[in-house]
């Protein structure tokens, strides 16, 4: 060839670059496709869980802003407000003591059942599409994510067949307690980190176990020693998972810790050699995890219990929130075979935690006897019995009647932290425990060649069928006033200022909190729905004291009567507005007894100004 002949780069540099780019992209695409093929079964399981979660919550779609969970709209209103406040972290306007409710004292977010980590993570969705969309995504995502996380733990840690793992994951993610808690309790359904915590604890134990003594070439026996690098990484990972879970749902972490403690003790009793070998390293690893977690959680936990507006006790009565013993063998009203009459056995539709039904309890008991892996089964059974017994509360209730028989919870009731948990929620730990027993039995059956290969999965399927969940009931919700959605509120209250909606929000009727939610918590509200130190002696209480003016307005909204207003009421109205730090009082057309409220407010604050669909008074 002539030396003057053009080379490919000289002749067509653009084509050369395109060819090089295609060559570079091809291996990446090939690797991605290979990864998809390799994990196609896991991806299929994730898709099935996501579709099921979407179907169960489909009542909130396609317009979450116009729909609400019919069985617990009050808590949904609260959690959407939480999400709106958390989203302000993206705007650089966030503090653990928020001034956007209960003006002027504010609300301690750590002392409430907030989901701060999720709220911050989904802040872009909240700011772009609104808190109701984020709520709907989390309601479905928590179900699917929990199911998938347990599926992966069962399959990869217990090394069981995927079919068995999928059954167990489905029960953990969509069991009666999970479906019930999905009625607005996002902090209770966000359990997808619990399998990660369990995996890290197991990994820590394996790293701490030096293994049985082995003879060397000289015939002497010696242990190989713990894997210190793996032990430290497990402890660090455990600290990270625990820290994250605190900012998602502390009660779930508390229940997981109690369950794992009981299982660890039971397993140690069943395998004393393992306990003897691994205990020093395991305890050291836990100490490292606790120390690392404390670096992150020390201040937030102090703020929760001893900071401003913090509470150090629980506000719920354990006797009232105790599980009825007969509810254990009853089917949940939210299951395909359940009955609405069963609802009388619990405190409300968000607490069907124990409604497993007798078929599942019977099959789980048989599986525990047959499943094998005796030490793990023994630990599961022990933990299940303990958590189930604690759910009965301080006094056993049977069929709605108190029996005067003390429950095991009476032994621990009143202890710090423990009194903040509802006894009946201890039963939520039974879902993964029962699921583990079923998974072990189904996996053993699938590996066998006898009649059990068909009979065991069939029995498990028959037991699970009656508790298959039904879609959550939803209803339409009133539209937020155009005064808020159109941004007209800025004409009478500055950003971050205090707007007084009439009537004011309360724990039983928190609806005006939707105004702040729709405005991305751009203004504060007096009073409201939250947990604060307003009980006797500064103990925890729901909501705060009503000021005289808010009590007067609430009475007008409830009865429609127009009270006599004198100089004292007007002076009190001014004092209350000053106490709240209010800039504006607003009454919208959809308020109950709006005419009577408007006449009362005119006597208290003078002539109003009409802005969009609201009457407003500058104070």
Would you mind describing this structure in some detail?
Keywords: Membrane, Transmembrane, Transmembrane helix. It comes from Micromonospora noduli. This is Dolichyl-phosphate beta-glucosyltransferase. The chain crosses the membrane at residues 41-61, 109-129, 135-153, 231-248, 254-270, 282-302, 355-371, 376-393, 424-443, 455-472. By secondary structure, this protein is an alpha+beta fold. The chain has 23 helices and 14 strands. The protein has helices at 8-11, 13-38, 40-56, 73-87, 116-121, 123-129, 131-156, 162-174, 176-181, 186-189, 194-208, 228-246, 250-270, 272-306, 358-370, 374-390, 430-447, 452-464, 482-485, 513-518, 548-559, 567-580, 594-605; strands spanning 67-69, 97-98, 107-108, 214-215, 221-222, 395-398, 401-406, 474-476, 498-501, 531-532, 541-542, 582-588, 609-611, 614-618. The strands form six sheets. The chain has a four-stranded mixed sheet. The chain has a two-stranded antiparallel ribbon with strand order 1-8. The model is unreliable at 1-11 (pLDDT under 50).
Main attributes of the structure:
619 residues, alpha+beta, 4-stranded mixed β-sheet, two-stranded antiparallel sheet, 23 helices, 52% helix, elongated, disordered N terminus
User: What is the count of DSSP helices, taking H or I runs of 4+ residues?
Assistant: 23
What strand line-up does the widest sheet have?
A: 9-12-14-13
Would you identify the regions where 5 or more consecutive residues have pLDDT less than 50? 1-11
- Rg calc: 29 Å
Overall residue-averaged pLDDT value: 93
Gross geometry: elongated
Give me the count of strands.
Answer: 14
- What fraction, in percent, of the residue positions are helical? 40-55%
Transmembrane segments: 41-61, 109-129, 135-153, 231-248, 254-270, 282-302, 355-371, 376-393, 424-443, 455-472
Keywords: Membrane, Transmembrane, Transmembrane helix
Protein name: Dolichyl-phosphate beta-glucosyltransferase
């Amino acid at each position: 060839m002539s030396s003057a002949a053009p080379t490919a780069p000289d002749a067509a540099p653009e084509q050369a670059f395109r060819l090089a780019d295609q060559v570079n992209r091809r291996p990446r695409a090939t690797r991605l496709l290979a990864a998809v093929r390799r994990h196609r079964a896991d991806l299929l399981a994730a898709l099935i869980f996501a579709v099921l979660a979407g179907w169960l919550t489909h009542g909130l779609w396609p317009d979450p802003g116009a729909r609400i969970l019919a069985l617990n709209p009050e808590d949904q209103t609260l959690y959407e407000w939480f999400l709106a406040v958390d989203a302000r972290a993206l705007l650089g306007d966030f503090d653990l003591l928020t001034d956007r409710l209960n003006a002027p004292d504010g609300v301690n977010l750590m002392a409430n059942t907030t989901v701060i980590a999720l709220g911050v993570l989904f802040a872009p969705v909240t700011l772009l599409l609104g808190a109701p969309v984020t709520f709907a995504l989390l309601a479905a995502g928590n179900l699917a994510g929990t199911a998938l996380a347990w599926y992966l733990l069962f399959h990869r840690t217990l090394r069981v067949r995927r079919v068995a793992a999928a059954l167990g994951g489905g029960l953990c993610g969509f069991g009666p307690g999970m479906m019930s808690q999905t009625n607005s309790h996002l902090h209770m359904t966000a359990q997808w980190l619990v399998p990660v915590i369990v995996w890290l604890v197991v990994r820590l134990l394996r790293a701490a176990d030096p293994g049985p003594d082995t003879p060397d070439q000289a015939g002497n026996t010696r242990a190989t020693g713990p894997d210190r690098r793996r032990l430290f990484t497990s402890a660090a990972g455990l600290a990270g998972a625990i820290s994250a879970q605190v900012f998602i749902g502390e009660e779930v972490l508390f229940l997981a810790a109690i369950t794992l403690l009981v299982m660890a003790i039971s397993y140690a009793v069943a395998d004393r050699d393992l306990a003897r070998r691994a205990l020093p390293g395991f305890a050291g690893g836990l100490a490292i995890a606790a120390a690392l977690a404390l670096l992150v959680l020390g201040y937030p936990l102090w703020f929760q219990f001893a900071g401003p507006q913090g509470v150090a006790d629980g506000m719920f009565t354990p006797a009232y929130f105790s599980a009825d013993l007969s509810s254990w063998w009853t089917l949940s009203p939210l299951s395909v075979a359940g009955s609405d009459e069963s609802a009388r056995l619990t405190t409300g539709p968000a607490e069907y935690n124990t409604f497993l039904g007798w078929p599942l309890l019977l099959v789980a008991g048989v599986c525990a006897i047959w499943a094998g892996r005796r030490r793990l089964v023994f630990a599961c059974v022990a933990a299940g019995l303990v958590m189930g017994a604690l759910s009965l509360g301080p006094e056993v209730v049977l069929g709605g009647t108190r029996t005067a028989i003390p429950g095991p919870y009476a032994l621990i009731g009143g202890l710090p932290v423990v009194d903040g948990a509802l006894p009946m929620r201890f039963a939520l730990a039974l879902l993964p425990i029962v699921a583990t027993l079923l998974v072990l039995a189904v996996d053993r059956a699938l590996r066998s060649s006898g009649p059990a290969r068909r009979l065991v999965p069939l029995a498990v399927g028959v037991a699970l069928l009656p508790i298959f969940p039904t879609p959550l009931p939803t209803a339409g919700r009133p539209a937020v006033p155009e005064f808020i959605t159109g941004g007209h509120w800025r004409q009478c209250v500055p950003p971050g200022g205090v707007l007084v909606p009439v009537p004011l929000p309360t724990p039983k009727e928190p609806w005006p909190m939707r105004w702040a939610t729709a405005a991305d918590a751009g203004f504060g509200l007096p009073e409201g729905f939250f947990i604060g130190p307003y009980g006797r002696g500064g103990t925890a209480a729901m909501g705060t004291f009503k000021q005289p003016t808010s009590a007067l307005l609430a009475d007008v909204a409830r009865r429609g009567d127009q009270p006599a207003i004198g100089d004292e009421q007007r002076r009190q109205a001014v004092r209350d507005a000053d106490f709240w730090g209010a800039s504006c009082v607003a009454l919208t057309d959809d308020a109950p007894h709006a005419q009577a409220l408007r006449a009362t407010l005119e006597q208290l604050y003078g002539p109003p100004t009409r802005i969009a669909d609201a009457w407003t008074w500058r104070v």
